[in-house]
Amino acid sequence: MRKWRRLFAQALMVGAGILVALSGATTSVFANADGTTNVKNDKVTVKPVHGVTTNSIRGVDISSLQAELNAGVQFYDYDGKKQDILQTLEDSGVNYVRLRIWNDPFDSEGHTYGGGDATLTNEVKTAKDATAHHMKVLIDLQYSDFWADPAKQALPKAWKNYTFDQKKQAVYDYTKKVMTTMKNAGVDIGMVQVGNETTKGMMQESDPDKYMQFISEGVNAVHKYAPGALAAVHYESPTASSFAKIAAELKTNKVNYDVMGATYYPHWNGPDSNLIGAENVITKTYKKKFAVMEMSYPYTTDDMDGQPNIVGDISNPPYKISVQGQADAISDVWKTVMQNGNGKGLGAFYWEPAWIPVKAGWNNYQFNRDASIKYGTGWATQYAAKYYDDAGLTDAGANADQYWGASSYDNQALFDPNGYPLQSLLTFKKMITYNYVSKNAKKPVDRYKVSKRTAYAYSFKGSNDSFTFKKAFPLSTLKSFYKIDKAEYIVKTNGKTYLYYHITSGKKSGWIWHSYLKKCPNKVTKTTKVSYKHRYMVKNKKGNVYGFQGGSKDFQFVTLHYLKNYPRTHFTVTRKTYVKKYNGKTYKYYYVHSTNGKVHGYVWHGYLK
């Protein structure tokens, strides 16, 4: 996250703990002076998103959580009862958490730099809780002591005087340390991010041929010490051209990564064609997996804790700034990733949905600022500037020194300022498509019988956009031969497509996977020519004249004429054909033509005299 990117796009004055908006383009920004809000009751409508399955990454970055909890912040469930936030997230459909880790986010006297106090110790606690709630963990190693992004990639203090080779070894050793610590704590590591938004470099090295050696060392350590985890790299401002350049540099430098991660905020990085272009390059050209590591969207422009919001008013917002707009932004990002990744789109992570005020209300600015100094709950503290200054990043230091304070992200959280979940959080569950009909299939005309009697026929519970299978009846109860009523291609929760046939048998009706049914074809067993010409007429106006569609070993009868329309027509037989039909019985058919040649085809011999 580019932590101070556009942080103060609108002018702000800070004085006596009161913030005043100078932008004339907005209504009253600070409507929640006392911290009250009713947004937790705002309902949302979320449609299932094709491509988002139970296996898709539906993640959140909650790196600041332990700092919040240490400061006494409480979270609730949808009924207003206190509840472990990880339980609320699990109940809402979240299956992955992302946790950034800074090497040493403290000054020489032990003062925190803030930013959510993202230490290894704190993140291990959150990671263990996430694992206990059946979530995988993405570890975001930033190889810095504080925020790392394209504007600043400060070298950790302890590595300041290292040679280039020593820095490479330090990356490897530090990655090994974090992997070992997490594994020993029983954490389910699903992915490890080596570097954060390293678009312009890493650890104060801007030459790709050099800093990508740092990334390579981290990736190698991940593969060795967390062998079941995916190793990811991470870049911001995705476009087809920028990600093609980065991917080419990674390939040239032989970085053996598994996943390309992108920062994509709809209000900053849109339109989604930018994301689609980048994803196509990575998944189609370079055959790598793809995920969005950071996204979010505001549900209000109101301030919640006295600290100016990183996102205030948005010119031409891509979605409404509301709880519904927030839900729409979430589902659309997941839709883009999962439907344009050539089968290699993994999902996305919502950035810091739980970074709410320690004490709600913009008139509690000083309280929240003090909490930041003590617990690290804000964007930064006054101690962070010196770290950047000592690293030679004076612009970043000046920014931190001028704007340190409480959270500036509270209006993009998925909890209200008092810790109650917004309905937009349920998007993670509601956008899942369990099974859906991708398209209708051509209905076969063959007859079928059961090939696996231990299987079941199913009914679909839900809509064509998202349904679950419900057992209708066991296939062992089907004794005869059946025609197919309907046929559909169904994408199941594992993302794979299956062909299902629908049959009706008396009161039974259900969908059956096509492989559990065996086609019973019609076959020609023998054909003989008739050496003499004998005239025939219709015996009792029953039956039809047929054509055989298909090969001699698998064909269907196609009606060409109805014999009742030819009661006095004389037919000439030219050959006899014996047909073994789908039911196993053999029938004799005559191939006939009328005297005038207008009618010709196959007729069962019993219909002629």
From TrEMBL:
Annotated coiled-coil segments of the chain: none
UniProt xrefs under SUPFAM superfamilies: (Trans)glycosidases (SSF51445)
Key words, A-Z: Glycosidase, Hydrolase, Signal
Origin superkingdom: Bacteria
GO molecular function: hydrolase activity
Protein name: Arabinogalactan endo-beta-1,4-galactanase
Enzymatic reactions: The enzyme specifically hydrolyzes (1->4)-beta-D-galactosidic linkages in type I arabinogalactans
Catalytic class of the enzyme: hydrolase
Lineage: Bacteria, Bacillati, Bacillota, Bacilli, Lactobacillales
Record's signal peptide: 1-33
EC number, as in UniProt: 3.2.1.89
InterPro entries, alphabetized: GH, Glyco_hydro_53
